[in-house]
Amino acid sequence: MKLHSHSLLPHVGLFLLVAAVNCASPAGAAQVAASIEFDAVPRPAGLPEEMQPLPGASLKFLAIKAIDGSKIDAALWQPDNVPPSRATMIVQVHGSGSNLAELPLRAVARGLSAKGYAALTISTRGHDEYLNTDNFLDVRKDIEAAVATAKALGYTSIVLHGHSLGTIQVEYYAATNWDPAIKAAILTGPFARLPWKSRNILIQNEDTYGKLGAAARNALTAGKAGDVLPMRMPYLGGRQTAVTAQHFLTYRDEQASAADGTYWISRIPLPIILLRDEADGVILPFEPHMLLSAAHAEGSLVQSITYMVVPDQHPPSAAGHVFTDNTQPLIDAVAAWLAEQHL
Fold first, then answer.
1. pTM (2 decimals)?
2. What is the mean pLDDT of the chain?
């Protein structure tokens, strides 16, 4: 592996995976087969005004290239006067169709960066206008790129934080990459089994579900997995959205999807905390308990698991799902748990 520094930001550079190939180059010379790259960039337009660092911390922005070439925007929150070798980095993954500025991610990153933690919040390949178009199996590469970037910046203690849809993406990554630098996982607004929920809570129509599945399989067979299907998918709040074949099959289809948290969570060899806002109108009260049950099953690799409901007297709503009225109690709960884990 090679690391090259860049003048725009200390320690920012290229994290390269290098493979030797047999080609017309000097004997024994190595060639670059693929790379993860990152660089400093100006603050993106359109961010919330309150997305500013607290005293004692800084906020910068990065452009990261995943190993398959996909571009990832990232927000880098860092504490002042705490070197990376002595700080824990929280790599954050947003929910469905959101981005690096999402609540509660930005609130947690902002609050904890003033307490000595760093955070790297990414916009995955399913952000914003790419809602319901990505392949679940590919988002792992976005997280991989963020973790590699954190390491290249000098961080040796990393915690994964997923919110909503990001929870299953984090669970999958943590279960299939036992990186000793990754110390724990934080799951906020976690659902249990997305394929089941998509079929029975979101779609609620077997004819529509069957037609979506058939159209997705036809597109896959035709080599058009990335194409938008001719029919729309029922979604949150009674909306209907465009969906690609690859998204439906890898997230929503009960037979083909791998987006089942109850399967992956027991295979994560880390301490885990689940947090749900009491007024969450998206995640049903029983869903975190399904994850808890799976984590406690015989043979589970989970080192420890904590479930916390953050009190909220507001009626259930989408605002509750992102801890809109509960950001400080959420920050305090995460900080206390990290301290308990000696992180």
1. 0.93
2. 93
